[in-house]
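Sample 3 of the quickstart, ligand magnesium ion:
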Amino acid sequence: MEMKDKIAKIFLEKFGEPGGSFYASAGRINLIGEHTDYNEGYVFPGAIDKVIMAEIRANDNGIVRAFSIDINEYAEFGLNEKDAPAQSWARYIFGVCREIIKRGGNVQGFDTVFAGNIPLGAGLSSSAALESCFAFALNDLFNDNSIDKFELAKIGQSTEHNYCGVNCGIMDQFASVFGKKDHLMRLDCRDLQYEYFPFAPTHHKLVLVDSRVKHELKDSPYNKRRESCERVAKALGVPSLRDVSLAQLNASRISFSDEDYRRAKFVVEEKERVLEVCAALERGDYEEVGRKMYETHEGLSKDYEVSCEELDFLAGLARKCGVTGSRIMGGGFGGCTINLVPDNLCDQFIATAKRDFCEKYGHEPHIYDVIISDGARRID
Ligand code: ADP
Ligand code: MG
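Result:
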């Protein structure tokens, strides 16, 4: 059964009457631009054809009654600060309500049933989709769409910070709210300016290969990477690596440790790569996009050192199979590779990745193919 029909059926069972409005918001990929956000560089995400969808109807009893189809749980909460629900999935909805109210917006009681098809915790930001779906819906239902879209993304981000204990940036919620079919968005993490670029390959697919490994590292590598970047920027007398060119960096190379130099080199090169990929997409040059993806992988692996054996294996395998581009997506040390795969190689690549990875590491990776699609929306 289609997701919408299933939600409608269960809404009727749970709440006795039909008649709610339907909303959806999407998960996201990031094509290129990794570890650039905290260096005031660019990220380049897009919304995907995997969503959270909700039916929502205002009630007149001032409480929120929510049913999660996928988790098969019901939660009920009021809209005051002290009413935070225990279930973690419900805290995302509660947080969105609270963050709207905090900003002077209006939220009244409502009934909702929701479901999704974004794999949880696989790096596709199911949580941002959940937040964006409800932020968009409550803006439409109770606020005449008076809250602007950037604020909706920030409402999701603040929900993660204040109710879910995740200190995330803005990219995931931004992508989920602003996503547009056949377009990626270059977001400038310095001033939050953004621009759409066409992404509608006719002979390639985007395929994620999820290694399902996550290496837990003791010595907080993320903080160490940040510290390296900050040290180099400071030594060069600029606010962030955004302001540094490769020539400048190389001219001062002897002032840095080899490690700091390589970290900074990756960030400076990655910033340029995002711009080069944007230019390539405007020409429809997907071969160039793929080359840049491989370069990012090399940089993340050799210079930034946030890869791991399994992800290097998957990127290497992609290259061997003739895949156009492949790289780690996300912070590193596990998770997915994102692959730009020629249509005619797709089946063979997926079969080979499953078989060879399983032979070496004892379990099959999960495969997700994604199409760049619309973000938050009302569904009629
Ligand atoms: P991700 O990287 O996918 O965002 P998170 O751990 O940040 O992973 O968010 C996953 C959480 O979001 C789940 O534990 C759950 O609370 C909530 N969530 C995501 N998708 C759904 C869904 N379909 N139904 C209910 N809750 C969901
Ligand atoms: Mg998340």
